[in-house]
Amino acid sequence: TDTGMRGFANTVLSGLSPRPSERSILVDNRQCGALNYIRQSEAYPAFRLTMSLDARTIESGENLTGAIGNIGGRYVTLVLVDDNGGVQELGDYLSFRGGFARFDVPLNRVGVSRDTSQVLIAFGSAARPRTVDTQNGQLATTYFPALRTELGANTPMVMVPFSVR
Description:
Blueprint: H1 5-13, H2 32-39, E1 50-53, E2 57-58, E3 63-69, E4 75-81, E5 87-89, E6 94-97, E7 100-106, E8 118-125, H3 130-134, H4 140-151, E9 157-164
Parallel strand pairs: 2-9
Antiparallel strand pairs: 1-3, 3-7, 4-5, 4-8, 6-7, 8-9
């Protein structure tokens, strides 16, 4: 919950010097399937891929741009988990150069702005996962258990929240 995050962060980061930065975000319960998938990863919280966004907040109608790093010969999948828990594959918006994948995704908000964040997740695998095709458009509670079954718990990944206003 949002009220418990400050105490949680203080407990986890206690005694670390210098104290790392932290960022609390609100998510919708329908997005929890994605967050559980990430949290249950053997690599969590040390992501093996990296992701940078050119802006963490964009206006509806703008493009979300950024890069995914440490892809090293992996098949890279990029998905959006919207604030209703829907999962959309964004592979058509990826371009590759060297050890990076760049993305440039047009996004439009339908309905009023909400306090909850969108979640962008990239993961690497040996080949395109079947789940990406069979579960695309499904809710995170369906998509990510299927992905875990297919890829296991040691999948290189990264997650970054962002907002569309």
